[in-house]
């Protein structure tokens, strides 16, 4: 038997069946939360994004991977974050880009697991359309100067030729999604030098995630992801992580970062 007094202390959300956005607006309580399969949620992001945003300003939504993902693959969480979904569940056991984005976002705020949404996703007086149109607000320039003690993908790669390059990738609203890469440096993972400047123009910087990825051919060797507003300007040493978002001791990129208003 459950003590009602104890239950009242730990129950913050009440699960409820989602009937429709109009029904929720007229009848639902702020503490009621509905769950959505990824396919249905992605459809809302494309076809009913405004209603989905208004719903997420009043209530909480939980998104979960499709049952057909028997390989534990993941879907892209960014479109759902862009409409304000609070709980976007992923398969944590899979070392993929989607999990790297998740780990990058939630490392801020002390890594406590909670990140405050932008005001335009919480306030009714600030309308927002994730499909645009937008004007460019920020320009990010990252000069990839050099790398230090970059890892190999496997033991076999120790004896094969490597072509190392760094990719700058932006994930956010569709108009901000972009990628650019440096030239390649062959057979030097100890101290490769690029001196290449990569540029990205951001329209909704509040939702942008910045990734620096080190590749050898098509193989991801190391990466680091963080929200745009966590990026610091000036000369920086970026401590890299593996595909599981675990630290790679001694593996770094030396970069120079400049951010300007457009």
UniProtKB/TrEMBL annotation:
EC supergroup of this enzyme: hydrolase
GO molecular function, one term: phosphatidylinositol-4,5-bisphosphate phospholipase C activity
One annotated GO biological process: phosphatidylinositol-mediated signaling
Catalyzed reactions: a 1,2-diacyl-sn-glycero-3-phospho-(1D-myo-inositol-4,5-bisphosphate) + H2O = 1D-myo-inositol 1,4,5-trisphosphate + a 1,2-diacyl-sn-glycerol + H(+)
UniProtKB keywords: Hydrolase, Lipid degradation, Lipid metabolism
EC number: 3.1.4.11
SUPFAM superfamilies with a match to the protein in the record: C2 domain (Calcium/lipid-binding domain, CaLB), PLC-like phosphodiesterases
A matching Pfam family: C2
Segments forming domain C2: 122-248
Keyword Glycosyltransferase carried by entry: no
PI-PLC Y-box domain segment(s): 6-121
PANTHER family assigned to the protein according to its UniProt record, in alphabetical order: C2 DOMAIN-CONTAINING PROTEIN (PTHR10336:SF80), PHOSPHOINOSITIDE-SPECIFIC PHOSPHOLIPASE C FAMILY PROTEIN (PTHR10336)
Protein's name in the database: Phosphoinositide phospholipase C
Organism: Capitella teleta (Polychaete worm)
